[in-house]
Specification:
This is Beta-glucosidase. This protein is an alpha/beta fold. It has 21 helices and 30 strands. The protein starts with 12 loop residues before the first helix and ends in a 19-residue tail after the last strand. The structure holds beta-D-glucopyranose.
Length: 769
Amino acid sequence: MKTVQFRQVIAVAFLLVGHTAFSQEKLPQLGHAPVSEIIKLMTLEEKASVVAGTGMRFQGHGAVIGEADGRVPGAAGNTMSINRFGIPGTVLSDGPAGVRIDPFRKGDSTKSYYATAWPVGTLLASSWDTALVKKVGVGFGNEIKEYGVDVILAPGMNIQRNPLNGRNFEYFSEDPYVSGYMAAAMVNGIQSNGVGTSIKHFAANNQESNRNAVNAIISERALRELYLRSFEIAVKRSQPMTVMSSYNKINGTYTSESYDLLTKILREEWGFKGMVMTDWFGGKDPVAQMKAGNDLLEPGTPRQQQAIIDAVKNGTLEVKVLDQNVERVLLYILKTPSFRKYQYANTPNLKSHATLSRSAAADGMVLLKNDNSALPLNKSQKVALFGIGSYKPVIGGTGSGAVVVAYTVALEKGLSQIGYVPDTALKTIYVTQIKADLKTHPEKNMVLGSPHLVPEPELRATDISSAADQDDIGIFTIRRNAGEGADRKVEDFYLSEAEKTQLKAVADAFHAKGKKLIVVLNIGGAIEMESWNKNVDAILLAWQPGLEAGNAIADVLSGGVDPSGKLATTFPVKYEDEPSAKSFPGTPANRPAESIYDEGIYVGYRYFNTFSVKTSYPFGYGLSYTRFAYSNLKLSAATFSKKLTATVTVINSGKVAGKEVVQLYLSAPNKTLDKPSEELKGFGKTRLLQPGASQTLTFTIDPKNLASFNTEKSSWIADAGKYTVKIGASSEDIRMTKPFVLAKMLIVEKDHKAIVPQVSINELKKLTK
Ligand code: BGC
């Protein structure tokens, strides 16, 4: 249902009045004439319309904040067309987990426009497989193109600074190296189709609480080493067509108004060639945004256009600055399918994309526990499925990162399709509960923050005991969901009393019969596990796996796919153990005006490892149904010069075929500057190794891998001294080490002094000098 008509699209026609002097043929046309020639002939009004999108109105399904008034209903935004110069409009659509558009169109009852829900970013990162992520990107990009979209507002790649960030599911990791490489793989895959991406949200959008105004106060070093570093890697390795600036301020300035961020760092230092757009209605001052290098304002308002026109007229905005913004937008348009008049068919191959989504999902699931080989399941077992999530999976988070899908596969269906026999009495209880709940809570396609989840039914003791009697094994699915617009509450991190009680009752009943209980975690961010993980036999972290959820989970539980995912984010013992627990989401807590990142560089494993704080499951951790032995670590030299390679051989020493994720950490000398005990500087995944088969992986260490950001010198500096290469199966399970020496201190890179905090930050330090 349409609600408020938020704002009308500006009619281009009126802009053209008074430009009859040039006939259409004589005017330079985009693609045929240099853009500078077109810009010379544009009116000020036309220029202002190019740098602001066509606006939006609030609607039912589509984009989260609204729906663009354009040719792909439900897409989030558009850019303006100007016919007299042959400039077409282009279409921008959310979001990271799939093409977020309306499934139905007015006056078109014969066709649907459902999209594939891919596994969420956190799951994809847990695969540690950039080739796989690129492959997903290739399929995703095809769907983007075939639905007539020019730019997908993805991937999301903020650092998972704190487990309660409501949008963590959209992001990849707590580590910038993993985030950067995953984002680059996704961008390269998507853009290989000739469509664009918008890596987001640049930068430090690490919370949803008061996201539109919060001032993130971050040291230059933490910014450079963590929050900017991931974007730097993605920009340098994939040249995304566009970058989306974030809503928040950093050190007092809106990111969309920050010349330091968008021009000095992004363009001058990193060599970004594309266009920057705002997040939807992001920032305050359109003129400052133009000056900063934020070329496109989305979704675009008449007020913004007027402000730009006025500023040029009154001399507060130089027209040459605006011309540069216009030029970047035009250069972007030149690269789009819309410009090429690509005839999209609206019939992407959803079947083959679903198959790809399923296999990617299985490859990113993480086996956290598997006592006495509780998994894989024996063939054709009778399974007692507990938890609403076993019948109604959470396929992804909410907000713009959600996808409107034609179907989802539940675990119950996934298992029965491959010969398992789910308990029908339990199924009746859960399905009845779901149906009853749907009457009071009908499904919505647009939800922000934590959605309503069907409450777990109360089970009678006899329901549990008869399942434990009759079935061979129990499987209990625990769900969580969150998304754009709100952070998770601390309570959401812990199991509720009801969840704990039910889980324990089920575990006790199955154990009393000598049977096992498996837990499947269908969640988008870390939860507490220490208080209950000892009561269960195996735990599979399935994350939020996209529309083929149940099939992918069944693939792993059955052993059809060997689990090969590892955590790209730490699971702490308790929330208070998080280094940012005290400062997140800032002050005042109900609507934080500022958020001080006083943990500095000690985010995730950088903190837990350096300060020896116990975790439930550390960064990089994950089990398999087989085992891997590491041998033969070799460095190309004992002394570093220019670059160094490390090779290590991995052999499958177990009984089934599997893939292993190998991580390279580096410890650097820390006499003068705080350094984490180790930092990830490389990772690789073997191919599927049969038992007894081996593979040698090669890692390259470049000078920047050795360096830390020295704030006084605004430079990346590698200290002279002894470095240690640590090859790990996780950040805590280091299998082999080898030292090398850097003979002389190395200034690897000199950067701008930029985005300097206005206040002093009492940062966490290890070194006491
Ligand atoms: C979100 C973006 C999204 C945009 C368009 C914003 O609210 O933060 O991630 O791309 O809306 O829907």
